[in-house]
């Protein structure tokens, strides 16, 4: 006798397949990736509902009817047969191990129903499981610490550096935006951050003499608030934008006549706010009958 197996889909459509040696069909499921072990799998269009598969049917009776079900071995799911209070049976696809969409986005499982006749006949259905994304990944920066240099007096809107973070999730869960965190008011006046691109730009007057290094913390957030943080170190490089300033300890200093050559008559102090070679100075006394010793920051005026 020709056996018939039928599998009913709980969403309203029916998959029929005729058994000669075996039969085939398809079922499709969408599953949240963070669903806990033991959860009953549901369809994304019917979240929270128990999703079940009605038992396969065989036109034969007794031992020739359906006797057992076998789900293809896999690391995540088991198949369980349940009996209603009215005595009818249905199957449940149950999560046995947590899913991770970033490791496997979908899978196909083979469910087989076997009767007890001789020869034994079976029916199979392919269960297509699509893993839905959950917001289980925080953004990850390409660097934990970004370093760059910036000349002082750089114009407003000068790009300084661009930070970048990626999120393994999809859609809104994977959309990354940027903002400053733990930023002193002084730094906030000097720099701005593009929330979408991660580009840091100049917005104020950059003066090496006011600050030679800035540490800025940038936070990357995804669409539902998971975040991570990176540090940005900006070293300001000096330019020669300060003239030397002369400081005299005394503007007037009487000198006796006939004073001996080499006698100290005054001290001149010169300072330059620039750094390194930009602050090195040389002294010259012009149109005076004295000479000055060349020095770095101080010179003595001597009688010639």
TrEMBL record:
Q: Which domain of life is it from?
A: Eukaryota
Q: Where is the Cadherin domain?
A: 23-141, 142-246
> Is tRNA processing one of the keywords?
no
Q: Which residues form the signal peptide?
A: 1-25
User: Which coarse location class applies to the principal site listed for this UniProt protein?
Assistant: membrane
Keyword Transmembrane in the entry? The reply is yes
GO biological process: any one?
Answer: anatomical structure morphogenesis
What are the UniProt keywords, alphabetically? Answer: Calcium, Cell adhesion, Cell membrane, Glycoprotein, Membrane, Repeat, Signal, Transmembrane, Transmembrane helix
Membrane topology, as annotated: Single-pass type I membrane protein
Which GO MF terms are attached to this record? Answer: calcium ion binding
Q: Which GO terms describe its cellular component?
A: plasma membrane
Query: What subcellular locations does the record give?
Result: Cell membrane
PANTHER family listed in its UniProt record:
CADHERIN-87A, PCDH2G3 PROTEIN-RELATED
What is the protein's name according to its record?
Answer: Cadherin domain-containing protein
Whose protein is this, by species? Mastacembelus armatus (zig-zag eel)
């Amino acid at each position: 006798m020709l056996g018939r197996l039928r599998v009913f889909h709980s969403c309203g459509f029916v998959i029929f397949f005729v058994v000669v040696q075996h039969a085939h069909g398809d079922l499709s499921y969408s599953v949240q990736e963070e669903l806990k072990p033991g959860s009953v799998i549901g369809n994304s269009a019917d979240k929270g509902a128990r999703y079940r598969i009605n038992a396969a049917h065989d036109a034969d009776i007794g031992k020739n009817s359906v006797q057992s079900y076998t789900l293809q071995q896999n690391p995540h799911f088991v198949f369980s047969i349940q009996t209603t209070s009215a005595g009818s049976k249905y199957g449940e696809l149950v999560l046995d191990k947590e899913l991770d969409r970033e490791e496997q986005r979908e899978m196909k499982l083979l469910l087989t129903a076997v009767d007890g006749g001789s020869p034994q006949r079976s029916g199979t259905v392919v269960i297509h499981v699509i893993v839905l994304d959950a917001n289980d990944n925080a953004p990850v920066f390409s660097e934990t610490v970004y370093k760059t240099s910036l000349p002082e007096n750089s114009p407003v809107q000068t790009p300084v550096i661009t930070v970048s973070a990626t999120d393994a999730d999809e859609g809104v869960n994977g959309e990354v935006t940027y903002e400053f965190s733990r930023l002193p008011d002084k730094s906030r006046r000097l720099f701005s951050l593009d929330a979408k691109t991660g580009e840091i730009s100049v917005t104020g007057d950059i003066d090496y003499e006011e600050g030679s290094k800035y540490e800025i913390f940038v936070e990357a957030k995804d669409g539902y608030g998971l975040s991570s943080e990176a540090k940005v170190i900006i070293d300001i490089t000096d330019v020669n934008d300060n003239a030397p300033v002369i400081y005299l300890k005394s503007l007037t200093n009487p000198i006796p006549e006939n004073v001996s050559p080499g006698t100290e008559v005054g001290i001149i102090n010169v300072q330059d706010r620039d750094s390194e070679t930009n602050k090195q100075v040389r002294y010259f006394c012009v149109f005076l009958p004295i000479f000055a010793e060349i020095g770095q920051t101080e010179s003595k005026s001597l009688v010639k």
